[in-house]
């Protein structure tokens, strides 16, 4: 793997030099974004991304392994899912991922058809790398990331109906996001309808998260024999329904309301557990003269199936961000953010109490809460900020700091991909720790981008307790990455 990283770095440097040398020529004769042949318009696209990552003492690798990993899943008398096994501690984790997307969209009148073929892989992977979040395929994979048919109109207002595999992102992506940072990204197999009229946008979708089918029920032992027999049942799988409405009142005042309903039945993937989850979300957002902000609040209710009983679900979450791009040289920008999400400890162990752990459904990672992806919008208190500067059009730099803590000290700590890091029922300390990170992005040519970054997470007393309980000795986590991306157009 070390040789692979060296080869990766050398390739990135060579491409950067070559692209810089040919920059003027490339800008002199740009390729068109589309081609017209008679009544048909063809829009090709290409994206190739290669990223190398390194983590020293990762918090979510080695130690206890959980199955399932769903945010609302729990083992008996535990805030965590069932422990499927224990692995040795991981001191160094490093890997190289690649993702190539080749797409073609074809327009004719009110009809659009689009297909984007994606190849996403972890170099040397043998099928055990847990580098994906809920709703994402497991690499290595060669499959369409998008494949849909859309019918639309444009006559003062826009109405569209899109059916097929597609990316969906609402708001900041805290509840429904495309999660582009992950190895594969996230696409939904869905039917989606949208209407735009004046200052109002309305959109709704219905997505299949897990197909209906047969599944094996838990084995039951009889008194006459010590052997186990498994019954086979049929289930309706899992579906997600969404409704989003936005009112663009003023540049500094846009009002957005979202409703989500996730119905989960067996058979389910490991990232889901049988439940009915309903989310009501409100969001205020504005952008004017360098000032940008967003304030969001969500309330969650429903029921979660567990050990023969249904636990009522009542949880909530809040988030806010704001940034100011000054008139100083280099577009100096100051940003701040804060977030809260309720947690649950299952202290009674009876599963009869109300579940209060917030489930963020299908969130983005890396761009929200933590660039290092060590926390999720669940059982969380977070505050921090960043400073960004762009001294050249082709160069931007960003540095940030965040402090993270547990809303419920005895509850679960999840990473940004919603994988459970662990929990310590006897823990009384809230502090998870301090994250310091920085990144540099270079775009020497419009179609070519190089990005690198570093992060340090210094754990607090709460993180210490959880990591010891999960058989991952507590220490600092270091993180570094180097990523190159080519996009056409």
Describe what you observe in this structure.
The chain is mainly β and 489 residues long. It has one domain (2-214, 233-488): Porin (Beta Barrel). It contains 3 helices and 27 strands. The protein has an 18-stranded antiparallel β-barrel. A two-stranded antiparallel ribbon has the order 3-4. The protein is globular and about 65 Å long.
Instruction: Note the beta-strand portion.
Output: over 45%
The share of residues in helices is under 10%
- What's the β-strand tally? 27
Give helix and strand order, one letter per element, not per position: HHEEEEEEEEEEEEEEEEEEEEEEEEEEHE
The name of the CATH architecture is Beta Barrel
Count of distinct structural domains: 1
The CATH topology assignment is Porin
* Mean of pLDDT: 88
Would you state the CATH class? Mainly Beta
Over all CA atoms, what is the radius of gyration? Answer: 24 Å
Structural class: mainly beta
Which residues form runs of ≥5 with pLDDT under 50? 1-28, 220-229
User: What is the 3D form?
Assistant: globular
Task: Give the end-to-end Cα distance, rounded to a whole number of Å.
Answer: 32 Å
Number of helices: 3
Largest sheet: 18 strands, antiparallel, barrel
Brief sketch in words of this structure:
The protein has 489 residues and is mainly beta. The protein has helices spanning 2-21, 23-28, 461-469; strands at residues 35-37, 40-56, 63-66, 83-87, 92-108, 111-122, 141-154, 158-166, 188-197, 200-210, 213-216, 220-221, 228-229, 232-235, 238-250, 253-264, 275-288, 291-306, 309-325, 333-341, 380-392, 395-405, 413-414, 420-422, 431-445, 448-459, 477-488.
């Amino acid at each position: 793997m070390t040789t692979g990283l060296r080869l990766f770095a050398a390739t990135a440097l060579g491409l950067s030099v070559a692209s810089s040398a040919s920059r003027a020529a490339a800008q002199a004769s740009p390729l068109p974004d589309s081609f017209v042949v008679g009544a048909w318009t063809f829009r090709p696209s290409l994206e190739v991304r290669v990223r190398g990552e390194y983590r020293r003492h990762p918090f979510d690798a080695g130690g206890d392994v959980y199955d399932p990993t769903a945010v609302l899943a729990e083992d008996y008398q535990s805030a965590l899912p069932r422990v499927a096994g224990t692995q040795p501690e991981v001191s160094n984790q490093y890997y190289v991922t690649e993702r190539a997307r080749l797409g073609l969209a074809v327009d004719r009148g009110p009809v659009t058809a689009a297909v984007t073929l994606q190849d996403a892989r972890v170099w040397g992977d043998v099928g055990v790398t847990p580098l994906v979040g809920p709703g994402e395929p497991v690499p290595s994979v060669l499959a369409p990331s998008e494949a849909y048919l859309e019918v639309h109109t444009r006559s003062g207002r826009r109405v569209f109906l899109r059916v097929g595999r597609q990316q969906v992102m609402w708001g900041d992506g805290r509840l429904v996001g495309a999660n582009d940072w992950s190895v594969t990204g996230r696409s939904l197999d869905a039917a989606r309808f949208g209407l735009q009229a004046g200052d109002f946008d309305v959109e709704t979708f219905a997505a299949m998260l897990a197909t209906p089918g047969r599944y094996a029920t838990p084995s039951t032992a009889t008194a006459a024999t010590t052997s186990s027999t498994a019954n086979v049942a049929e289930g309706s799988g899992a579906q997600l329904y969404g409704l989003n409405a936005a009112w663009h009142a003023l540049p500094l005042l846009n009002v957005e309301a979202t409703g989500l309903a996730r119905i989960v039945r067996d058979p389910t993937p490991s990232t889901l557990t049988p439940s009915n989850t309903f989310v009501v979300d409100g969001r205020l957002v504005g952008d004017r003269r360098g000032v940008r902000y967003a304030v969001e609040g969500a309330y969650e209710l429903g029921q979660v199936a567990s050990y023969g009983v249904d636990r009522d679900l009542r949880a909530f979450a809040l988030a806010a961000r704001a940034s100011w791009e000054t008139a100083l040289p280099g577009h100096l920008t100051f940003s701040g953010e804060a977030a809260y999400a309720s947690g649950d400890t299952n202290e009674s162990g009876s599963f009869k109490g109300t579940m209060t752990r917030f489930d963020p459904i299908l969130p983005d990672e890396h761009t929200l809460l933590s660039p290092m992806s060590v926390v999720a919008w669940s059982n969380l208190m977070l505050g921090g900020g960043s400073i960004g500067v762009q001294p050249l059009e082709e160069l931007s730099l960003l540095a940030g700091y965040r402090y993270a803590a547990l809303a419920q000290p005895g509850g679960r700590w999840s990473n940004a991909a919603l994988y459970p890091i662990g929990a310590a029922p006897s823990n009384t300390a809230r502090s998870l720790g301090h994250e310091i990170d920085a990144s540099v992005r270079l775009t020497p040519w419009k179609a070519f981008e190089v990005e690198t970054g570093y992060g340090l997470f210094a754990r607090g007393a709460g993180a210490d307790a959880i990591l010891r309980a999960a058989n991952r000795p507590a220490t600092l986590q270091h993180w570094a990455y180097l990523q190159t991306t080519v996009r056409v157009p």
